[in-house]
Amino acid sequence: MEPVETKPARVRILDAAHELMLTVGLARATTKEIARAAGCSEAALYKHFDSKEELFVRVLTERLPRLTPLLDSLAAAPGRATLEENLTGIARQAALFYEQSFPIAASLYAETQLKRRHDDTLRALGSGPHMPIQGVDAYLRAEQAAGRVRADADTYAAASLLLGACAQRAFAYDATETGRRPPVDEFAARLARTLLGGIRAPQEPAG
Question: What positions does the domain HTH tetR-type occupy (predicted)?
Answer without folding.
Answer: 7-67
